[in-house]
Amino acid sequence: MKRRMLGTGGPQVSALGLGCMGMSEFYGQADEGESIAVIHRALDLGLDFLDTADMYGRGANEDLVGRAIKDRRDEVVLATKFGVKREGDSRSIENSPEYIRAACDASLRRLGVEHIDLYYMHRRNPEVPIEDSVGAMAELVEQGKVRYLGLSEVSAETLRKAASVHPIAALQSEYSLFTRGLEAEILPAARELGTALVAYSPISRGLLTGAMPRSEELPADDFRRHMPRNQGENAEHNARLVAEVTRIAEAAGITAAQLSLAWLLAQSEDIVPIPGTKRLKYLEENAAAADITLTPEQLDELAAAVPADAVRGTRYPNMAEVER
């Protein structure tokens, strides 16, 4: 497996990571046995960059990942997140220094580890100065509980303010052929600051596989049923774009998902996609994308087929919590 750096002076990680969120909720019924097998197989393949968060499964995902890596901790670059607080059916964004300290200790316990390699602020509450939050995160680095710091879904301005307090190794934001909004300001700011871009939903939550069912055919507990890109005329328009991606992939002898991942990897060495899966067959397919090199002609064809603003529909039903 090829390797990439997470930011200037950050850790080396596999060129592709593994998003573990869907192993616990959001994408239909979970199977812990297969999920643990997926994590073990990922490590066998050299995918050592594992991504979780304290809100996934209300802590259950961290517990799952911790059990999976218990005997293989030295093979893993472990990332988790704080900031999305769940109480009953409601959510809030909590970034206070006191909360950050408590959240880190709770994550360490659930993961069963002595330190977190990369600790992200999952979402930002603009009522708390980013300098205060990152200052508290920096204290965790000084205490040896955390090695590197990251942010998720923040604006270029917020990223710059954060980096003035402590180096930010990685910015985790949604980025794919279908999600390009960060190319104008956020990616340039990250590069200016020596911050890597960790791309979540690099296959656009399954849309770019070319095989995702219609929203009404998804399980009731699959949150993609409610995504604007999967609704009505948006879905019909986006399906035509997916068909073009599939056509280009088939001509190259690869899958649409592999083409989408290879496209991201071709954008820059400072981008690390973290496709999520809870199935072994999809893990194997995704991992193989790291060895695919697209030609300039293929990249040009993709650019023509899927312009940056081609996709219809917002990423979430409520966009108020992102890019703050």
UniProtKB/TrEMBL annotation:
Keywords: Oxidoreductase. GO terms for cellular component: cytoplasm. Pfam families: Aldo_ket_red. GO terms for molecular function: oxidoreductase activity. Residues 16-305 form the NADP-dependent oxidoreductase domain. InterPro entries: AKR, Aldo-Keto_reductase, NAD(P)_OxRdtase_dom_sf, NADP_OxRdtase_dom. SUPFAM superfamilies: NAD(P)-linked oxidoreductase. The keyword Oxidoreductase applies. PANTHER family: AFLATOXIN B1 ALDEHYDE REDUCTASE, ALDO-KETO REDUCTASE YAKC [NADP(+)]. This is Aryl-alcohol dehydrogenase-like predicted oxidoreductase. It comes from Nonomuraea polychroma. The lineage of its organism: Bacteria, Bacillati, Actinomycetota, Actinomycetes, Streptosporangiales.
